[in-house]
Amino acid sequence: MSLASSRRMPRRLVIALSIATALTAGAAIGQDASSNTQPSSAPTRTATLQTINVTAEKRTEDLQKVPISMTVVTAEKLEAFGQAGDGVLQLASRAPSVYAETSYGREFPRFYIRGLGNSDFDLNASQPVSMVYDDIVQENPILKGFPLFDLEQVEVLRGPQGTLFGRNSPAGVIKFESRKPTQETEGYARVSYGSYGTANAEAAIGGKISSSWSGRISALAQHRDGWIDNDYTGKKDDLGGYNDRAIRLQALYKATEDFDALINVHGRWLDGSAMVNRANSITLGGDQFVPGFDRDSVSQDGRNKQHLFTWGSNLHLNWHFGDLNFASITGLERATTYSLGDVDGGYDASGTPAKASFTNRVTPFYSETADALPKDRQITQEFRLSNDSAERLKWQVGTYYFDEDIAITNFSYDTLNNHVLNGWVDQSQRTKAWAVFGSADFQFTDEFDVRAGARWSHDKRDFKAERFLGFTGPVGPLTSDPTDARWSGDLTGTWQLSKNANVYARIANGFRAPSVQGRINFANSISTAKPETITSYEIGFKSTTDDNKLRFNADIYKYNMHNQQLTAVGGATNVTQLINAKKTEGYGAEFDLEAYLTPQFYMTAGGSYNHTELKDRNLAVAPCGGGCTVLDPLNATGNALIDGNVLPNAPKWIGTWTARYGIPYGESGEFFVYTDWNYRSEVNFFLYDSQEFRSKPFLEGGVRIGYNWEFGKREIALYGRNITNKKVITGGIDFNNRTAFVNDPRVVGVEFRAEL
C-alpha cells in the first residue's frame, strides 16, 4: 500500500467501524447468550472477573486487599492502545488522575498523577512520578520512554509511595511487570500495518532450557513513514517518521523451592524525528488553531533528527528460609541520545520558502537547538527481608542504594549560516542516595488490620555546568551540591465490611530530593530547588459482587505540598529555571469499575476529579514573549503572579471507558468488537494563565473488529486509533511566537496475532 493510498483509506472504513461498534455493543446489553467470555481474545468457560494480583507493596497480593488507590492496566488494553505505534504515552488518561505529555517526541515522556508532575524539558529533569520497570526505578526521563511490549500488566499507584519506593515518588508510582519465563513452551507473534506506513511487529517465545533453567526472549519493531511535508525546503513527507526497536532477554534459574534467580537484559534503538513544532499555530486571544492550519505540513528552516540507544540489565535473587524470604535486586541502566529540532517551528523572515504563501509561519528569530546525553549510567541495589505473607503479622525491612552519573550537552546552531555551532553548554551530575525502610501489616481481628511503614533517605548531588560558546560568551564552571536527608512513611487502617467489601483510611507522606537546573545557553546562572514534601490523606472503598461479575473501587483524597518544585519554562526571557512554591493544595476523587453486563459483554470504566491550586502570593514568572493574552495580574517587573493558578498539565476531569462484545462462532471461534475511549478536560501548559497556551477538552477513541479461532490462539482484526480524527493542541512554546505541538492523526490498519 502506498502512503498516498493509506492516507485516503480511513474515512469510510472508520465510519463503518464506529457504527458496527455502537450497534453490536448496544445489542449486547439485552442478549442472553449460551457461551461465556473473558476480557481476552478467546472464548472461555466462565464469565466472571479473575483475581488481579499486584505487587504494589513488594509482595504479591490481591488488588482488592491492597489499601492503596491504584489501577491495573491489563496486557490486552496495552495491545489495543498501542496498535498505532504509541509508546508509553498511550497511558495518558487511561487511568484515573493520570496524564502524560512530551515536547521530545517518542523519547521523553512526562507523567502527572493527581496534577503533580514536572514540565521541565532538560535531560536532568527530576519528576515526582516514579516509573519502575521490573522493580528497577528509571530515574532519568530518557529511560522512562522504554516501549511497552510483552508485559503482564501495568500498575498505577496514586499518591505518595515514600516507604517502599522512597525518593522522588510524592505523586505516585507506575510499575511495569514484564512476562517472566516458565518451564512451559509459550509465545506469540503480532504484526500490523496501517495508515502512514505505520507498522508494528512484536514477538516473544519462551520455555524450558533445562530442568533448572527457563528463558524468554521478546522483541518489538515499530515504524512510521515520514508524513509531514516541509514547505520551506519543498520536501514531501519529510518529518514525523521513526524506527523504534527494543528487545528483552530473560533467564530464570530455579532448582529448588528455596532459591531462584532471574536475569534480565534489555535494549532500545530509536531513530526518527524529534518533536515537530508548529509556528504561529495558535490564534491570538483564543485556544484554537489559526484558520487554515494544516497538520500535514510545516515550514521550517532548521534541522530535525533524533537518535537514542539505551540498554540495561538486572538480577533478581530470592532465597526462602522457612517462613523468611530474602531478596536482592541489582540494576544497571545506561542511555545515550541526541535530539535536534527547529524550536521556533517556522522560518526566519530573511529566508525564502519553497511555498511563499505560508507567510504566517514566519518567526521573529530562529532557534535551532539540540540536547545530547553522551553519558547516563545508573546503578541500583536493594536488599529486602520479609516473613511469610500467610502470617498474622506480615513485615519487611530493607536497604536501598542509588548511584547515577550523567553528562549532558546543550547545543544551539546558526540556522542562517549553514547551521554552524553557536552555543555549547556542558552539564554533569553525580547523584548518590541510600535508604533504610521497614513496613508491617498486623491483622488485629478478622475485620480490622493496620499497615504502617517508615523510610529514612539520604540524597546528595554534585552538579556542574559550563558554557563554552554562547551569545554572551563563556560562563562557569557553575556548581551546586545540594544534600538532603529525611523521614517518610505511611499509616493505613482497613475495615472489612463483608467478605467482598472493605474501606480503608490512609495517611502518607513523601518527598522529592533537591533538583538543579543548568540549562545556561541563554542564562548566566544555574538554579537549585529545595526538596518538596507532601502529606496526603485518603479514604477508599473496594468491593466485588458475590458472583464476581462486577468490581468497583473508589476513593477521595486531599494533599498539601510544601516547597513544590516547579519549572518556569521559556517566556519572554527564554530562560528555564527552577522555583519553589510555598504551598500547593490538591483534592479529588477517583473510581475504577470492571463488569460483565452479559456473558459476552465486558466493560471497564474509570474517572477522576482533580483540583489543584498554588498558594504563594509573591511567586511570579515571566509570561510569554511571542504574543499572548495573559490572564494573571502582573507585578512591578512585568512578571505574572501565579497565586491561585492550577498546576500545568493538570486536567480537572479524566474519564476512560472500554467495552468488548464477543459472538461465539463454531466450536473454537469468536467474532468480537472492542472499543476504548478516554477523555480529559482542559489543561494549561504553563505556570501563568493565558488565553492561548492551553488545550481544549479532548475525547479520543479507538476500535478493533475481528475474528479469533482455535480458542483465541489465532486472531485477525481491523483497528482504528483516533477514529474521529480529532485535532488538538497538546503543548506549546511561548518565547517568540505561539508555537504548538499537535496530536497524531487517525490511523487505520489491520493486525494479525498468533500464539503457540
From TrEMBL:
Where does the record place the TonB-dependent receptor-like beta-barrel domain? 264-723
Which Gene3D superfamilies has this protein been placed in? TonB-dependent receptor, beta-barrel domain
- State the signal peptide span: 1-27
Keyword entries, A-Z: Cell outer membrane, Ion transport, Iron, Iron transport, Membrane, Receptor, Signal, TonB box, Transmembrane, Transmembrane beta strand, Transport
- Keyword Ribosomal protein annotated: no
**Similarity field:** Belongs to the TonB-dependent receptor family.
Protein name in UniProt: Iron complex outermembrane receptor protein
Organism of origin is: Luteibacter jiangsuensis
